[in-house]
Design brief:
Urease, subunit C, domain 1; binds zinc ion; disordered N terminus; alpha/beta; disordered C terminus; eight-stranded mixed β-sheet; 2 domains; single chain
């Protein structure tokens, strides 16, 4: 199995201190901040009720670095410490959203579709096409991510009518977020070779510094096996991480197993269908088995794997694929009815790294785009699993911090409270009972980024929310960002 060894594509703590000022409190270099909270937990071994977190702020070129000095049930206050009392809050490391489509933020939440392929057609019709529109949409998504405590993303840079676009990648690189922008492409049926050649030209256009850039063949029903092979070759040449949508819907299964169904009809309608494709699809193979050869040649980030019978667990585990589960998208499309419950717990037992994603805002509830409180956050995904499955909160925090970091090639330690480590940020969630962890997961309080990168100013977030057409112009979005 080929695993990309060069980590240059990712922004890391070593290479990049925070580009933006610390939010919520002033943090001069060298200051030590002692936060005394109702509870503290990360996805590793640190959990205290109540708990204290001691963080040192150090100046680095381009920003401020946060170093954890201690985490404990009690820390004796020192005269040089800035003390912040948050007895009603649960503290966690900053969050990682391993699968989102920030360029679709301007589309906003949409009603649930009757059919998955109808939804795909809606997205094709509504997605922004012009560079300025795409940039504004991604920017809105970045601000809604920060408003949800998310500081790292696995974002999909969607393809426009004229082909793959680098605008989402450039916008993400200019933002305070870490992560990867996966350049998405389609390549199946008629014209697929020209599309691959166009993709290569776009990758050349990206220039020499391709940090934070990744590559995403869209899905097995929109990219044939030759397209996946080319993606692997290009990823090796340009040192790019790889992601794909896989085993998402029953329609995908029909197309890959039998070569029939709505996905084939869609290709025929678009004039793209080519009978040559039946040499590799319609052979009775499950989508994950169909793609197992490609999975074995790189370390893939797989979005969804909603359709995962026993025969599909093996190739996922053996190839070291990481899986992003998007619980609210799964519910929105009614996949439980057609495909059964998602097998994230079985995957974890099989040693597969499973993390959380939101998918696009299109499938999120309407309040996701409303001010105040609008956000794109994996914490809301974790809440679904806690309420429905009673999943262990430590595991949930791991899925939205260190597992997400691992899936995106980021340093796991930046998403823990391990003493001595530089961290990406601190998130707080208001709690209301004497069981703060349960209260945080059962309640609706927003996860607030109390230490970490901030939006340039609160009003820009407010205007972004309002420009979606659903915001309250009088709302004070500043409260979303002020914890202290
Ligand atoms: Zn997606």
């Amino acid at each position: 199995m080929m695993v990309p060894s060069n980590h240059q594509p990712y922004r890391t703590a070593a290479s990049e201190a925070m580009k933006e000022p610390i939010s919520s409190i002033s943090t001069p270099s060298g200051q030590r901040i002692l936060i005394r909270a109702g509870a503290i937990m990360d996805g590793c071994a640190h959990a205290h009720i109540p708990g204290c977190l001691l963080v040192r702020c150090s100046k680095r070129p381009g920003g401020i670095e946060l170093i954890v000095e201690a985490v404990a049930a009690h820390i004796e206050p020192g005269s040089d410490m800035h003390i912040v009392d948050m007895p009603g809050d649960l503290l966690m490391p900053a969050l990682v959203n391993a699968h989102c489509h920030l360029d679709l933020t301007s589309v906003g939440p949409q009603p649930r579709p009757s059919q998955f392929h109808d939804w795909l057609a809606t997205v094709r019709r509504l997605r922004p096409q012009e560079p300025a529109q795409i940039r504004a949409s991604v920017q809105q998504g970045i601000e809604l991510s920060l408003a949800g405590g998310v500081v790292a993303v696995g974002d999909i840079a969607g393809s426009t009518r004229s082909g793959p676009s680098l605008v989402p990648w450039r916008t993400l690189r200019d933002s305070p977020l870490e992560g990867v922008s996966f350049l998405e492409f389609f390549s199946i049926g008629k014209g697929s070779q020209q599309r691959l050649d166009g993709l290569e030209r776009v990758l050349e256009e990206a220039g020499c510094d391709r940090s934070m850039l990744g590559l995403q063949p869209h899905a097995p029903y929109s990219v044939n096996l030759a397209g996946y092979a080319r993606a692997i070759e290009l990823a090796r040449r340009y040192k790019l991480p790889l992601a794909t949508h896989l085993a998402e819907s029953i329609e995908e299964r029909s197309f890959i197993v039998r070569g029939t169904g709505p996905q084939r009809v869609l290709l025929q309608t678009l004039g793209l269908w080519d009978y040559q494709e039946l040499t590799h699809i319609g052979l009775g193979k499950h989508p994950i088995v169909h793609l197992s050869g490609a999975l074995a040649q790189a370390r893939w980030l797989i979005a969804h794997a909603n359709d995962c019978p026993d025969e599909a667990l093996d190739p996922l585990a053996e190839t070291g694929a990481r899986v992003v589960y998007c619980p609210r998208a799964h519910d929105y499309f009614g996949f439980e009815r057609t495909l059964g419950a998602h097998r994230y717990r079985d995957m974890l037992e099989w040693g597969i790294c499973v993390c959380l994603g939101t998918d696009s805002i299109v499938n999120l509830p309407p309040e996701s785009a409303r001010a105040p409180g609008g956000r794109i956050s994996v914490f809301d995904e974790a809440r679904v699993l806690y309420r429905r499955d009673r999943t262990d909160p430590t595991l949930l925090v791991r899925m939205m911090t260190t597992n997400g970091a691992e899936a995106l090639g980021l340093e796991r330690s930046r998403y823990t409270f391990a003493p001595g480590c530089a961290i990406a940020g601190v998130v707080a969630v208001r709690t209301e009972s004497d069981n703060p962890i349960r209260s945080a997961f059962e309640g609706d309080s927003p996860p607030r980024l109390v230490l970490g990168p901030s939006v340039r100013d609160a009003s820009s977030a407010s205007s972004a929310l309002n420009s979606l057409g659903r915001g309250d112009p009088e709302a004070d979005s500043g409260s979303t960002y002020s914890a202290f």
